[in-house]
What does this fold into?
Amino acid sequence: MEIKKTYIAILLCIVIGANVSTADRPNVLFIAIDDLNDWVGVFDGNPQVKTPNLDKFNEQGGLVMYDAHVPSTVCGPSRSSILTGKFPHSTGVYGNRTNLRNAPKAKDLLTIPQYFSKHGYHSLSQGKIFHVHPAGGDPRGDQGQWAFDEWLPAKGWAGPISKERPVNGLPNLPGDKGYHSTGFDWGPTVGNDETKMKDYVTAQWAVGQFRDRQFDKPFFMALGISKPHLTWWVPQKYFDMYPLEEIILPETIPDDLGDILDKWDKPAKPHSTWQRVETYGARHKEAVQAYLANITFVDDCIGVLLDGLATSQYAENTIVILWSDHGWHLGEKQKYGKTQLWQESCRVPLMVKVPGVTPNNKKSMGVVNLIDMYPTLLDLCGLPENPENEGRSFADLIRNPDMDWNDPTLTDYGYGGHRIYDGRYSYIVFSSKGTEELYDHQADPMEWHNLVSNPEYAEVKARLKSYVPSEREPESPQN
Ligand SMILES: [Ca+2]
Ligand SMILES: [Ca+2]
It folds into this structure.
């Protein structure tokens, strides 16, 4: 019986492979957004956010993958993991200062655009897809130019209205220094004109490709949108959409950190950026306003891009997949930023449109990981599996969005930090001291109540713990 099934499967592959020539394969538009959390209308992360274009994308066939999680919660390792198809604990790419090309277990892997190129696609890119690393004397740095047949630098810039830094005037805490003190900044740009800004220019470039260009092969186009990554400098009109006095802050409880130990087994403390905001005038509403303003700017750029595709010759034969490299905290757990294994860092927007397949106005509740995008895209485009991939294709879920799909999924952070999530519970462990957390999202969606010491949850904990990686690659060389 097994032999017969295998034989039929092989036969089907041959038949499909024979019938689909390279030229008939769908194009792929792969859109990476930097630091966008679930504050998108259709993802329900914030009641005030205005994202009409992302919401319209869902109305027009962009399937919302409502429970999508990242392989890591910081830019470099998340992107390296997504693009190589292997988790950080398998490659040793744990931080922003490790280039996957210096990692013994990652440097020879074919990244997604390389794999598509090898299988008959033309790959092209503009904007941030790979994390940037120093590259000898090249002032542009290593932005992943090597991974594409055609790579263009992102252009466009509009500076803030003030030469003072930070523009928001938020002082450093005593002893605070470096990027995190000056980079946490917001304010309006000169000219109130979004068309000068990099992400807008990137979107327009792509629209020009769709409008003017005849590709002789299917394309794999990767576009990187850089906001809402800091700094939060966007035109005043986006701030004006969110009057300060009307801002609703994320819901928190006073002593949320009281039942958590950090990875060194010490009582968890508020994040230094949160302390700055709190100490100097409790300016949380301004920070939330600025993040919302940046999201709506991004949404405008996405609107230009998707409207351009929809009115082009490529509208009906292009798969669109849109994702963010990790989430962001805005006060939850007394934190601003990413790099945690809590829900606000791990859950991200992910949307997929397969023309003729994904229905309008649809959400799938299946638990997926962005590391699954690699095998999913190969599956959807009829390309051979890459045996190096550690994710699993969710193409079946895309074709049947209501099916059961809740296998536990993994997020790594740093060496030895892991989170296992199964759609109901999340379990966090740090190997340094064995510190653990456990949350029940059904009863406690904000992860306020750590259940790890509650004996009633011992079985749940043991089940999730069984998915934690038992082996970890040592940290690969830094830049
Ligand atoms: Ca990022
Ligand atoms: Ca708590």
In short: Confidence is low (pLDDT under 50) at residues 1-18. Residues 34-35, 75, 229, 325-326 surround calcium ion (ligand 1) (CB under 6 Å).
